[in-house]
Inverse folding.
């Protein structure tokens, strides 16, 4: 079948929305540790280790621009070790998608639709994303082109609406570094580890018009999303206060909800909810496409589309059963658990791949000298 292609611009949009969704969902720099009023500093700090991890697992894609992870892992490690490694990465797509769909569904049930079955909401979201994934990465890319301006406008609008209140609430951001850098570093751990979302890059690089610039595009998406994360942390902490914000399940959503521009203009949280839903659609569609494509290459299938429907069914089931409630999911993202889990999915497989790549390169150079 012909190779589908997307522009690097569209990859930027996809990764930007994937990264921003976690900030809109529950603002991990504030809720997963004890950074409190220094959460905005954690938002800055997390960028640097996240960028290093992105360079670590994205660098091989630049050296194999025409191959996905499933293909170059078999070339470097051999057939069966390469397949096992690919399946571990595909598990990350499955798990992260199920977790984020469940978070959004829990929010809808808790706040807007208390009588709606959780299964119905999760099924609706996954089926819509599966339709886009079945149509191919080009359709997902065009959808990202269409939705990104709306998504960004909604997020920026949600951040601009509370600005008149910030003049009297900036005291919530003080004192800066009152407890030193320890809480700042702890607040940066989870958002740093969430870079595991960008493993989608390893499956999307061959689909780019300029695959060798894929890593640069991903770094730009990370920088742009980190900028949004900083502003969300500042505004949310200033409006809610550090302790109430850290205790909130959905702090950004709660912050927007308390803003009322006048007696007649209130309940503006629809902006953030709508933006979150748009970003989640692109995110789950990208996960489903990457997962199905990778699995088809592991099993030697010519077309990934036959796997979309069964994978969607698995994701729906896992989304329902991945946790008992949203509070349990928030516990999953605590640094003590999530960081080792996410880093293991990155460090172990890609250390093996880099070692194999460098050894092959070394022996090839030695044989050339002889």
């Amino acid at each position: 079948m012909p190779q589908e292609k997307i522009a690097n611009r569209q990859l930027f949009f996809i990764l930007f929305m994937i990264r921003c969704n976690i900030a809109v969902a529950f603002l991990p720099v504030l809720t997963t540790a004890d950074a409190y009023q220094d959460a905005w500093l954690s938002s800055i700090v997390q960028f640097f280790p996240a960028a290093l991890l992105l360079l670590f697992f994205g660098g091989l894609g630049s050296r194999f621009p025409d191959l996905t992870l499933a293909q170059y892992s078999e070339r470097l490690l051999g057939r069966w070790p390469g397949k096992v490694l690919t399946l571990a990465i595909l598990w990350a797509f499955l798990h992260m998608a199920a977790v984020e769909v469940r978070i959004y569904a829990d929010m809808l049930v808790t706040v807007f639709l208390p009588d709606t079955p959780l299964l119905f909401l999760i099924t609706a979201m996954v089926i819509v994303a599966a339709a886009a994934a079945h149509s191919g990465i080009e359709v997902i890319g065009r959808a990202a082109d269409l939705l990104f301006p709306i998504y960004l406008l909604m997020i920026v609008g949600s951040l601009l609406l509370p600005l008149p209140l910030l003049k009297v609430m900036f005291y919530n951001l003080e004192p800066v570094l009152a407890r030193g850098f320890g809480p700042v570093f702890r607040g940066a751990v989870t958002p740093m580890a969430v870079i595991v979302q960008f493993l989608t890059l390893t499956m999307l690089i061959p689909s780019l018009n300029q695959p060798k610039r894929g890593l640069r595009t991903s770094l730009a998406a990370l920088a742009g999303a980190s900028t949004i994360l900083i502003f969300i942390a500042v505004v949310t902490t200033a409006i809610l206060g550090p302790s109430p914000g850290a205790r909130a399940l959905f702090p950004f959503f709660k912050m927007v909800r308390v803003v009322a521009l006048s007696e007649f203009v209130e309940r503006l949280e629809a902006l953030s909810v709508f933006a979150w839903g748009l970003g989640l659609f692109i995110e789950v569609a990208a996960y489903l496409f990457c997962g199905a494509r990778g699995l088809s290459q592991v099993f030697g299938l010519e077309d990934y589309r036959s796997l979309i429907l069964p994978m969607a069914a698995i994701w729906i089931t896992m989304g329902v059963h991945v946790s008992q409630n949203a509070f349990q999911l928030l516990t999953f993202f605590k640094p003590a658990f999530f960081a080792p889990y996410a880093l293991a999915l990155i460090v172990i497989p890609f250390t093996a791949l880099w070692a194999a790549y460098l050894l092959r390169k070394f022996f090839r150079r030695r044989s050339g000298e002889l």
In short: The domain at 8-365 is CATH 1.20.1740.10 (Amino acid/polyamine transporter I). The mean pLDDT is 89. The first helix runs from residue 8 to 26.
